[in-house]
Design a protein that fits this description.
The structure is a single chain. The chain has nine helices and five strands, in the order H-H-H-E-E-H-H-E-H-E-E-H-H-H. By secondary structure, it is α+β, with helices and mostly antiparallel strands.
């Protein structure tokens, strides 16, 4: 039996479990946290405990990261400080990056020293195959030197392939959620502006266009967002009998 096929059989249950994680998660942070915990438990073996960190970079959003242990979460914070390490390199190269002995690692001396301080002696980072607007890596950490054989890395790659599929789905759901929230906010702003326009029309007995121009001019004059000016109009009309002052005296 080929190694790839063997790994596929070993991880036959992973896709179903990851699907449940996607469905049960309320947001991306929760999904990544649950994913890190599951990955660490699934890839550990008797006598060798592994720890896992997952990092995802998206356009116009801060990096999302999670770890199966506080030590791993600390490492991700240090990565932002040092700006480099095995995970970021795996993302850029789209290839696995191995640190066989953190005590002898010369490529990222500060990051390697942080690994040792957190109790890790070896690590491997594997890129996640995501959509074009995102990149990510799953990193595994071990307290033993040379903790990852070529077979271990091959198994982790097969596992990561399953993770990538589920993460792509989770990211698309997260993007749709952002779009929905953006549309909801836009609709609320539109409603506030329409209400304010109607109030100005009633008070000044003017057309909708003229009332909207009053709001627009007030927004430009005061250097405030149009929806904020509209909200002030509604507050003034509903909160007192006085006519709203559209322009600063």
């Amino acid at each position: 039996m080929h190694a790839e096929a063997a790994h596929d059989e070993v991880f036959a249950d992973v896709a179903l479990h990851l699907q449940d994680l996607v469905l049960d998660s309320t947001d991306m942070d929760q999904f990544l946290g649950d994913l890190a915990l599951y990955s660490a438990a699934r890839l550990s073996s008797p006598g060798t405990q592994l720890y896992c960190g997952v990092a995802v970079e998206r356009k116009k959003k801060p990096t999302a990261a999670a770890g199966s242990d506080p030590s791993v979460r600390m490492l991700h914070q240090l990565l932002n400080k040092y700006g480099d390490g095995s995970g970021l390199t795996a993302m850029r190269r789209a290839a696995p990056v191995l640190i066989p002995d953190a005590g002898k690692e010369k490529r990222w001396p500060e990051y390697a020293a942080a690994l040792v301080r957190q109790g890790f002696s070896s690590a491997v980072s594997l890129p996640l195959a995501l959509d074009e607007d995102a990149s990510g890596a799953l990193s595994l950490y071990c307290g033993q030197r040379h903790g990852f054989s070529s077979e271990d890395i091959a198994a982790a790659q097969a596992f990561t392939a399953q993770v990538s599929k589920s993460l792509r789905v989770a990211l698309r759901i997260d993007k749709l959620q952002d779009v929905r929230e953006g549309m909801s906010a836009a609709m609320k702003s539109r409603t506030v502006i329409d209400l304010a326009t109607g109030a100005i029309m009633a008070q000044n007995r003017c057309s909708q266009r003229e009332a909207f121009n009053v709001l627009l001019l007030a927004s430009n004059t005061r250097n405030k967002k149009l929806k904020d000016v509209a909200a002030a109009v509604i507050t003034s009309v509903s909160g007192s009998s006085k006519t709203f002052t559209y322009f600063d005296e």
